[in-house]
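Deliverable D4.2, example record:
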Amino acid sequence: MTVVRITMLGDSLTAGYGLRAADALPVRLGDELDRLGVKARVNNAGVSGDTTADGLRRVDRDVPADTRLCIVALGANDLMQVVAPDRVRSNLDAILSRLSARSIPAMVCGMRAPPWFGFYALTFDGLFREVASRHGAALDPFLLEGIALNPAYALADRIHPNAEGVAFVARRLAPRVADVLRRQSDDAGL
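Output generated by the structure prediction step:
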């Protein structure tokens, strides 16, 4: 079986902020994919503090040409900085357009704003699905589904996931990623 390259273009949630390198999401996702029988090498293209604008600046440099799937996991820092949803949408559109121009399929991992953000939350939360749909990209609606705001899965800062939280995300995300890769193979007649 061929080993496929997956690249996670993200922020501190991808980079593994506050964790051992072996506990970063790309490593744990690779382990979970292996457990599912998918041979993949998951590259960590996460940079702590990055916004969608930062990801756009480095997408061409940090996503290798032989990437079979780029998981775009950006938006948390845009949320923290209350970046206008139109700007986040525009940046994600441009990232997916650049990947498409290089024939690299994408999966978008969404973020959610806390409900107390009001109208901003409604607009922000919906933009990930909208952008993924427009580009025909796979979607994971909320990267931190099941662990957000749960202290049992958070580091002391109560924002970033601890090793258990990352393991939970990897277990939840791996079947979705495996399904996307299988559909790609089916579409290519492999």
